[in-house]
Amino acid sequence: MINRVVLTGRLTRNPELKTTQSELSVASFTLAVNKQFTDANGNRGADFINCVIWRKSAENLCKFTHKGSLIGIDGRLQTRSYDNNNGQKVFVTEVVVDSFSLLEPKNESQSSNNNGYSNNSSANTATEPDPFAGSGDTVDISDDDLPF
User: Fold this and answer.
1) Going by DSSP bridges, is the β-strand pair 44-54/89-102 parallel, antiparallel, or unpaired?
2) CB contact set of 73 (below 8 Å; sequence gap of 6+)
3) How far apart are CA 12 and CA 49, in angstroms?
4) Confidence at 116, pLDDT banded by 50, 70, 90
5) What is the pLDDT of residue 5?
6) CB neighbour list of residue 24: distance below 8 Å, 6 or more residues apart
7) 29: nearest Cα among 21, 17, 20
8) What distance in Å separates the CA atoms of residue 82 and residue 88, rounded to the nearest whole number?
9) Which runs of consecutive H residues, i.e. helices, occur in the chain?
């Protein structure tokens, strides 16, 4: 049997970090995932997916993301139920996140929401300036020097 969920979307709010009685870190958040189609007015809707992440991954998510951050997640779908304060049974469907990826450059994330959080995305390594930009020099390479 297979139960895998892979999503890419933006956080609708800052992740909420809590600690259980047994000292485990857990964070909950909602991911807005754009729909693939538009309505009659040309508007593209979104699905709002409830997610939960545990342990060190939860701490890292809270440390490196904020409302509006673009992330990718990999996990599994879970359903559960509990009785609320009024004695009513409440059913919950959520994604239990196994791993996440930061999908924005550090400076783009900071400029969209400059609240002190940083985004150490390893997916974006081209953040250093081009050392050859503006030099005006041409590079003389023969066809024999090219690997293709």
Assistant:
1) parallel
2) 5, 6, 7, 8, 31, 51, 95, 97, 99, 100, 101
3) 10
4) very low
5) 96
6) 54, 55
7) 17
8) 8
9) 55-64, 106-112
Residue type, 139: V
Instruction: Report how far apart the first and last C-alpha atoms of the chain are (Å, whole number).
Output: 45
Instruction: Tell me if the pTM is above 0.85.
Output: no
Tokens of 69: 């951050």
Q: For residue range 60-111, list pLDDT tens digits in order.
A: 999 999 999 999 999 999 999 999 999 999 999 999 999 999 998 876 555 5
The dihedral of CA 70, 75, 78, 83: what is its sign? negative
Question: What is the residue whose two structure tokens read 């709010």?
Answer: 13
And the tokens for 88?
A: 């009513």
Query: Tokens in use for 94?
Result: 């959520």
Instruction: Please list the alpha-helical segments (H only) found in 2-140.
Output: 55-64, 106-112
